[in-house]
Amino acid sequence: QQPVQSPQAVILREGEDAVINCSSSKALYSVHWYRQKHGEAPVFLMILLKGGEQKGHDKISASFNEKKQQSSLYLTASQLSYSGTYFCGTPGAGGTSYGKLTFGQGTILTVHP
Amino acid sequence: GAVVSQHPSWVICKSGTSVKIECRSLDFQATTMFWYRQFPKQSLMLMATSNEGSKATYEQGVEKDKFLINHASLTLSTLTVTSAHPEDSSFYICSARRLGSGRQETQYFGPGTRLLVL
């Protein structure tokens, strides 16, 4: 089942903040976040492995609420380079689904000067 | 970092021809690689899981005879689109699964291959 991302699109000015949410209807074991720029392949941002975990990279951070089956990606003081489509990916539980990631529909982030 | 390469990056071919796309993990070994297809403004759709030394497993609705996958070594997987037709035109992306400590496993993506079938 595909995780649901919100919002679908965000438009910001440089320096503004944004939050992208990812929720799942099934139990989550981990959440992976990727960013894809137009015409390029997705680039790995971070993985959250357990409930309550928070991680950060530069001014991009994320949290994982295992009980609520959701994760949020926080972009602080956005830069022009943050523009792109952000995907969350959730793995399969096991068996033939092991290792597979199902991606959300993506959130398009546009940062203007 | 983990680097995955894909070749070619662009392919334009005539309808009915076969196209081979290579995916390589350059600085790590990957027993598992994945092949995705992405249409414009859409998410990544998993096509198949490529396992080194064994048959690939395909997602529902993906024709295994049309999309042939070979994972010949720990660093190379190939996807062959046989008898390509215009509806096969898409952005094909591979990823390689890298295992870390604990439960951490990450997929690193190749740069993608744009296929245009005329």
Descriptive notes:
The complex is a heterodimer of chains A (113) and B (118). Chain A is an all-beta fold and 113 residues long. Helices cover 0% and strands 52% of the residues of chain A. Chain A has strands spanning 4-6, 9-13, 18-23, 31-36, 43-48, 54-57, 60-65, 70-75, 84-91, 101-103, 107-112. Chain A is globular and about 40 Å long. Chain B is mainly β and 118 residues long. Chain B is 0% helix and 54% strand. Chain B has no helices and eleven strands. Chain B has strands spanning 4-7, 10-13, 19-25, 32-38, 45-51, 57-58, 67-73, 76-81, 90-99, 105-109, 113-117. In chain B, strands 2, 4, 5, 6, 9, 10 and 11 form a seven-stranded mixed β-sheet that branches. A four-stranded antiparallel β-sheet of chain B has the order 1-3-8-7, with no helix packed on it. In chain B, β7 and β8 form a beta hairpin. In chain B, 33% of the residues are buried. The model of chain B has no long low-confidence stretch (mean pLDDT 92). Chain A binds chain B through residues 2, 29-30, 32, 34, 40-44, 47, 49, 87, 89, 96, 99-106, and chain B through 6, 32, 34, 42-44, 46, 49, 57, 93, 97, 102-112.
Features:
heterodimer, A: mainly beta, five-stranded antiparallel β-sheet, 11 strands, 52% strand, B: 118 residues, mainly beta, four-stranded antiparallel β-sheet, globular
